[in-house]
Amino acid sequence: MLSHEQIWEAIDRLAERHDLTPSGLARRAGLDPTSFNKSKRLSADGRLRWPSTESIAKVLDATGATMEQFLALLPPGDASGERTGERARQPDSRFQPHGGAIPLLGFAQAGAGGFFDDGGFPAGQGWDVVEFPAAPSQKSGVYALEVQGESMMPLYRDGDVLIVEPGAQVRRNDRVVVRTREGEVMAKVLLRQSPRSIELMSLNPEHANRTLDLSDVEWIARIIWASQ
Question: Which residue stretches belong to region Disordered (predicted)?
């Protein structure tokens, strides 16, 4: 198992290989320049903060490095994921229901802090659970968001449940959930993604489309299933 320290050190080494600071690497990848700062690697309450898979993918694309080259930058560790000579701290456990149950949260609550880690995976307390068929529930890290209100009509109605897979690759025309750094959570269709911004189409024609700077986006995750 990879440790928190190993992943961050590999990012630092990748930056150094390209004569960049961690901030410069984040900027080249179209991320918030502070994304890889050492102060961002721990939360205010001391919890470990991990870089998202999307962030890693963007720095690999920006530097032209392959995943194999990135993994080669990892410092040595033993089979348990601990770095040689020191004890690696373990991340907080993510919400892990049993069987076919997955975490459930209302859209209105999703904008509040404490329900997701930096990668957009469910974490912390306050989640409900819902039983779902085997196919979506067996995907790692999936969770459910319950639609509240009429803002996503006519595609999604009040009470519909959306199954979201954080960490999955998103492509043009995918239906996605986006959370901004200001805490706004929205379900949209991804029209276009560039190194600096994303363009989103509203599900409800009465609501305007949105264009967001990537620096303002905390995470984006693909909707893989919906109960309607």
Answer: 75-96
